[in-house]
Design goal:
Strand 5, helix 5 and strand 6 form a beta-alpha-beta unit. The chain has a 9-stranded mixed sheet. Strands 3-2-1-4-5-6 form a 6-stranded parallel sheet, with helices on both faces. The protein has 11 helices and 15 strands. It has 401 residues and is an alpha/beta fold. Helix content is 33%, strand content 21%.
């Protein structure tokens, strides 16, 4: 990446958890200049204005109308992504929108069309398929050294469902539950490694806690047009912690204490009702009294649990330190250096799309295909059948990364 690219002026739509996780990237990357934010919480707006000397708004509409913004980062609740991304594009802003892209294929298409009409770039992320070890595994596959991909296994167990949540985060119809929230990461990873074009989906989901009545677990089998198949497993009920399988490196790349496991359930137990839980969440969000800034530098790569790619001549396993290669000659680690800018790959893609006009790997069509798989998982589980997909696209080889 060239550091000669000029900084673009960014507005942030939504100062919640997603923004907190992207904030170290925005601060560390000199291609990003934070100049505006919109959020309904006064405390979040006040902190942003103080920290960045920036303009703040109580509505996304007002912020998007500002001529002082080049890019809008859409990190509002999932059910608002389509509306806010289309609004930003219609005002001539380039768009980075959080995963999942939207909650329906039709809304994704509306976002793609809005960006095309306005002539602006649209990138969807962060998803963990941006992680450098995943990208390196894809490059190894594309090299042809290990033959065709045959099978992919992806597995993650977390405490996702017992972290403090807003009401819509526990309502599947509004984008809640682990399929919309977490499968978007896992599906993006296996699509990137498997070639992109999923043919069919068969899935089961688990709703095992009536107090948090949304999907907390899933298992899915994906078949690909090019021949591979992938098995995806996710459990967000918090008893086993799959970071144990990743050297006790947490999802965000930081060392993790094994004896801290179970703390999310214990902490949530102190919330007496939904109002209390919301206050608990807001206190820890940006601008809240208990908010703690993330470190701007990773100690290892971010990850999304255990992933193994079985090729004709080797198995590949992305890790927080690189990619393990298992073949007839033995096993070895191919290290992948850690960037001083976390999630730098996200900004790389968007900047290349803006400056060169090149399609990004994680563009709207790619993200719509991932969203289609997530929706098919819910349909398959509800209707007990295979679901055939129609909006899939291949991995764009050599696309901006």
């Amino acid at each position: 990446m060239s550091r000669n690219v000029r900084a673009h002026r960014w507005g942030v739509a939504g100062l919640g958890r997603a923004f907190s996780l992207m904030l170290p990237t925005f601060v560390a990357d000199d291609r990003v200049l934070l100049v505006a934010a919109a959020d309904p919480r006064a405390e979040a707006r006040a902190r942003f204005a103080s920290e960045f000397g920036a303009d703040v708004y109580d509505s996304v509409e007002a912020m998007c109308a500002s001529p002082a913004i080049d890019v809008v980062y859409v990190a509002t609740p999932h059910e608002l992504h389509a509306e806010h991304a289309a609004l930003a594009a219609s005002n001539g802003k380039h768009v980075l929108v959080e995963k999942p892209m939207a909650l329906s294929v039709d809304d994704c298409t509306r976002m793609i069309d809005a960006a095309r009409r306005a002539g602006v770039a649209l990138v969807v992320g962060h998803s963990h398929s941006f992680d450098a070890p995943i990208g390196r595994a894809r490059a190894l596959i594309e090299s042809g050294r290990f033959g065709d991909v045959r099978m992919i296994q992806a597995l993650y167990y977390t405490d996702f469902l017992y972290r403090p949540r807003r009401a819509e985060e526990l309502d599947t119809a509004r984008g809640g539950g682990v399929v919309w929230n977490q499968a978007a990461h896992q599906v993006d990873i296996v699509r990137l490694l498997g070639g992109g074009r999923v043919s069919t989906v068969r899935a089961l989901t688990g709703r095992w806690d009536r107090r948090r009545d949304t999907e907390g677990a899933y298992a899915a089998l994906l078949t690909f047009a090019d021949g591979p198949f992938a098995a995806l497993t996710y459990n967000g009920y918090g008893f086993f912690d799959a970071d144990e399988l990743c050297g006790w490196v947490g999802e965000l790349g930081a060392p993790k204490r094994p004896d801290a496991h179970g703390s999310a359930r214990r902490t949530l137990g102190s919330a007496t009702d939904a109002v209390d839980e919301l206050a608990f969440k807001n206190a820890r969000n940006y601008g809240g009294i208990a908010h703690r800034a993330s470190s701007p530098a990773e100690q290892a790569h971010q990850h999304f649990g255990m992933v193994v790619v079985s090729c004709q001549e080797a198995d590949l396993r992305p890790l927080p330190t690189g990619v393990m290669i298992y073949d007839a000659g033995g096993s070895r680690l191919e290290p992948v250096p850690v960037s001083a800018v976390p999630r730098r790959e996200v900004i790389d893609e968007l900047e290349t799309a803006i400056e060169r006009g090149e399609p990004a790997r994680h563009d709207g069509a790619w993200a719509r295909a991932t969203l289609e798989v997530c929706g098919a998982m819910l349909t398959s589980a509800a209707e007990h059948r295979d679901v055939t997909l129609v909006h899939q696209v291949p991995v764009r080889v050599g696309a901006s990364r």
